[in-house]
Amino acid sequence: MDLLRLALAARVRLVPERATRVDVHTREIVTESGERVPADVAVLDVGGESAAREHAGNAVLAKPALSLARLGAWLDGDSGQARTLVLVGGGAAGTEIALNVSARFPREALRVTLVEPADRLLPEFSASLGRRALQLLRERGVDVRLGAQAETAHARGVTLRGGEDLHADAVVWATGTGPHPLPRASGLPLTHRGLVRVGRDLRVEGSEWLLASGDCAAVAGHEHLARSGVHAVKQGPALLANADLLVRAVERGDDLARVRLAPWRPYPVAPYLVSTGASEALCALGPVGLRGRAFLALKHRADGRWLRRYDPNM
Ligand SMILES: Cc1cc2nc3c(=O)[nH]c(=O)nc-3n(C[C@H](O)[C@H](O)[C@H](O)COP(=O)(O)OP(=O)(O)OC[C@H]3O[C@@H](n4cnc5c(N)ncnc54)[C@H](O)[C@@H]3O)c2cc1C
After folding, report:
1. What is the number of the ligand 1 atom nearest to the C-alpha of 18?
2. Which pick of 7, 106, 232, 290 has the fewest CB atoms within 10 Å?
């Protein structure tokens, strides 16, 4: 999405920098160049980072998602000879990437290995979906290593626990979503998983002027929800409404601690659709696993409609 175009249209000042922390005492956002952006009301939506990234070396990280652009550029580059790719993590992200690259490239052009410590793929979903993903990947010649734990990624590939080295021209580190460092650096209240604690109204505990949502936040009463775009997107309207209430209260000079905000409610079950790179998608609905062409059409229609709201050229 063209963030600059969206910001200009909304008359928003875009600061193209990483924020390093929130100064809760002075109510400022501090950026990596040292700029301090004052805020009467602020929203934290920095997402998560790849878990165990300290072992990832120079691997392409699945989180933040923008890092995956490096994988796209590498795949698009034509080396003229067979290449090897190792994917670390057989959860939703790693499996979906493996399914899509193996559908796009024949095995002679790209040898793909997928490493997962559990005894099946997609361990967070129903066993039938894991079996289907495994069947498709093996049919396409992907080397799926179940029960194998990657220790570190390095310049020549990946070292597994036990010492085996897997050679790779490129490595993708898709080990799940870990916490973003910004809430901790800001001294915000955290869960044991390092997520910033927010109330059901998405307000950060103890900071009446600060909201947080998406992968970086744990909502009271819903701490165990998966880090998922479905939940992050559903938080958007509540976030907008509550930020608006706070801004209006600032304009009136009201005490923000006394402003009542609307609660956010998650979907009872959040569907998760994994594209296989071919004609079908796998659909996880809580403990239920389904698959078929209709789910792929649904995935493209839902994602496309959402993206076109922000960029008509999508
Ligand atoms: C390969 C893959 C496939 C996925 N597929 C699905 C799916 O099919 N369905 C689904 O529901 N979910 C899916 N997810 C999960 C989904 O992408 C996330 O749950 C969702 O994007 C979380 O939204 P968010 O706004 O919290 O964070 P993000 O979308 O990660 O956005 C965070 C933003 O903050 C920016 N940022 C980070 N740090 C800073 C900083 N210090 N200063 C300023 N800006 C910063 C980042 O650049 C990014 O733009 C997938 C994830 C991956 C990796």
Report:
1. 42
2. 106
